[in-house]
Amino acid sequence: MLRFIIKRLLLVIPTLLGITIVVQLFIVITPGDPARLLAGNQVSEEEVEELREEMGLNDPFLVRYGNYMKNLLSGNFGTSYRTKSSVLTEMLNRFPYTLLLVCISMLLAVVIGIPLGIYAATHQYSWKDNAAIFGSLFCVSMPSFWFALMLIQALCVKLKILPVAGVDNWKGWILPCFTNALAYAASIARQMRSNLLEVIRQDFISTARAKGQTENKVLYKHALQNAVIPIIMTIGSIFGFALGGSLITEVIFGIPGLGSYTITALMARDYPVIQTSVLFLSTVFCIMLLLTDVAFAIVDPRIRAQYVRRAKKPEKKEPERSVA
Amino acid sequence: MNETVSWRKKSRFAETWRQLKKNKVAVICLFVIIAVVLIAIFAPVIAPYSYEKQDYSSVYAPPSAEHLLGTDGLGRDILSRLIYGAGQSLQLGVISTAIASVIGIIIGSIAGYYGGWKDNLIMRFFDIYQSIPMFLLCVTLAAVMGPSLNNATLAIGIGMIPGPARMMRASILSIREMDYVESAKAINAHSSHIIRKYIVPNAIAPLIVYVTMSIGMNVLAGGALSFIGLGAQPPVPEWGAMVSDARNIMRDHGTLALYPGICIMIVVLAFNLLGDGLRDALDPRLKN
Amino acid sequence: MTDILLEISDLVIEYHTDDAVIHALNGINLTIKQGETIGLVGETGAGKTTIARSIMRILQTPPAKFCSGKIVFQDQDIMALSEKEMRKIRGNKIAMIFQDPMTALNPVHRIGDQITEAVGLHNHVSRAEAQIRAGKMLEMVGIPASRFKEYPHQFSGGMKQRVVIAMALACNPILLLADEPTTALDVTIQAQVLEMMRELKERLGTSVVMITHDLGIVAQTCNSVAVIYAGEIVEYGTAEHIFDYPSHPYTIGLFNSLPKLGSRERRLKPIKGLMPDPTNLPTGCKFYDRCPDATKACSLCSPDIIEISPGHSVKCIMREVSS
């Protein structure tokens, strides 16, 4: 198992390397001139050109990439064009907010989504199932930014139960996490329902019933344990959607996290921030995918068997004749 | 015998349509989508006003006979802007999906059919690609290319390529192993014949479902991009941008943000429900 | 006096789907005696599995529907029992082996635990005691108890089927329903598994319903034979009688279609035609279309069951009682 984890971990490195190349590529092919943006309109063309040289904007791609990587590996993530503060410090300050937002949303999504999916699957031919499917699709079809605004209008402005923006106290977290969680819960519920329906039709479920097992145990002990395993992978990919979605959520709710920082940077062509931000968020996603892969391998005995080193050799001899 | 021939000619398309017709919800959604498309095409004819006609005398007007849904901060008729907006959202959804699907299917087919180092290279590339959270990628691309509706469409299209690519590759890989392909090879069928007769029809089914639901998701992504200002630029009346416009004055004029959001939701829901229905129709085993 | 273990009378079962109603069983009459092995022979789709699942009451309703008839097991009407009472019988007094061993076991549970579960459901013993019993069952089917903690994917098809058998026999059932237990296995393994089943049956005194389409297996293992066609029992008798004096045209056709060692025939002799569409069954004899001896009268109404010699009955009007 350790071998598998290490092997999987090593795969992350070339992936991240690739991301740095892709990000640099985006920046290099961007139209627009950050030197001019930085210097302002009053400065003469020669001085802007000097600034460009200084910023290394005229160097060929490989040189720029080389410098970037050199800086990166020595821990220098640059300073923001816009705020002139260290990118790294700013990120470390902001990241906890994003992490908290994403994690709570995911937790809520799992807690709501899995039971909902089970409910829908066990009431398959009734209106409850159809209602659950429709409800899930409804939640998934809603633009989250619009839904957030509607909820803010209803709960914060009109009813004044929750704060309009900011996360100064715990109440400020409720709406942002909830609006995200709804869409993710719907995805998980649909996936859970379809997994469970597929598993229930399998032969080993009939075997369990034929043993005289109660319908409840057949569902929870036999069917569910099989159906829930692929959900681990679903959670991994939804985490990616959550990271991307945090960009919008933080802007709407005024959360001082990595997402809102990235949006501001993108609008202002603040390259050092953009580079680092994309790299950072992608790394977090990679780590999450790694964790889900490992969890999947641990939980599913069929996969686990491929990676666990056997303590002793399995018995090769199978009896030729049946034993009396 | 005539009976056998006519049975064979009843294509999968007809069979799928027959199954789909049974699902009333899916049929309603199909009509809704057709209606939206027609609204988008005939917007200049249907809309009572132009989307940019400003009328400073009636700003933030409540619904009236002249302006069925009222006016916005610049005196523009909301109903007309909503009608014109249909085309923008559809473009964001459909064209981006088309871009992603065409490119994705070609790449996925190459990876799946040829295998070997080509497959490996493409898959490693997609691993890197998909390690960047998809929305982050789209936002970055849109910002980098410069805010406009077309760029947003392109950005979303490029960001979504891995989805159909992997699906096509997976379909091809599994179909290749099927016995009926082996039999075809055994009677010396040509590659292109195998692709045309066996691989494409069987790979199409999951792709159709994916593409339909993908259109819905892309409309949402496009709306989000416009919401943060990276998509349609003013005065283009994209629904997401309209929500953004209304954001600052929500306290006093809540309904201005309500209508465009509902429009987005209707379109996306229609595509999603249709996709769900298509999935049931194409593979009835999954339903019962 | 031989004890009658299970009696099925006029069992009629239908499947209701969106498109049509499938008439799966059309009046099954069957008697199973204590200690006997009865073979249930028929083609795919004849209704064999439906009978087995009805006895266990594990048919999915919907889409299946129990229309009429009776199943009486040890003087208890199966259809009248509550679910709780039925659960006491399943796995305990009546057990079932399913056809495909590759999918019959739960992939994420250890095989030892799956057998232990069967034991624990019907016996008030501690978990440790149940595990010991499960280990003994494993040994009985020829699997070393050291493999108790392994998972199904670590076993071959034949061994999986042995685990399934161990699980079925764990509570010493009176009646075992074996639904094509060796169809998915290759011939040598098939022989081993059948031999093992025979020994276990003798040791434990279990009655067996052997569902199969393979007459060779019937010859090897069964005391009596019932031939099923289109949801009806068309012939019933002892194995000797059926093999030596097959009477129903379908049974005769089945035997004729078997290739014989040492014969110099050039072509196989299949029964021409197909089983009738179960959604649209004919009113007369269901074998009418394919029967070489059919007459007009056969198509008019369904034949009665005639006892042509003691213990040997046929559902055909062309056969007469003989001495």
Question: TL;DR?
Answer:
Chain A is built from 14 helices and no strands.
Describe the structure.
The complex is a heterotrimer of chains A (324), B (288) and C (323). With 324 residues, chain A is mainly alpha-helical. Chain A folds into 2 domains: 2-73, no CATH class; 87-311, MetI-like (MetI-like fold). In chain A, 76% of the residues lie in helices and 0% in strands. Chain A has helices spanning 2-28, 34-39, 45-55, 61-73, 87-122, 127-141, 144-158, 171-200, 203-210, 215-227, 229-253, 258-268, 271-299, 301-307. In chain A, helix 9 (203-210) runs antiparallel to helix 10 (215-227). In chain B, helix 5 packs antiparallel against helix 11 (191-227), helix 5 (78-114) packs parallel to helix 13 and helix 12 (239-247) packs antiparallel against helix 13 (255-282). Chain B is elongated and about 80 Å long. Mean pLDDT of chain B is 82; it is low at 1-9. Chain C is of the alpha/beta class. Chain C has helices at residues 48-56, 83-89, 101-104, 111-122, 127-140, 157-169, 187-204, 215-221, 239-244, 249-257, and strands at 4-16, 21-33, 37-41, 64-73, 76-77, 94-97, 175-179, 207-212, 224-229, 232-238, 306-309, 312-314. In chain C, strands 6-7-8-3-9-10-12-11 form an 8-stranded mixed sheet, with helices on both faces. A 4-stranded antiparallel sheet of chain C has the order 2-1-4-5, covered by helices on one side. The mean pLDDT of chain C is 87. At the A-B interface, helix 1, helix 6, helix 7, helix 11 and helix 12 of A face helix 6, helix 7, helix 11, helix 12 and helix 13 of B.
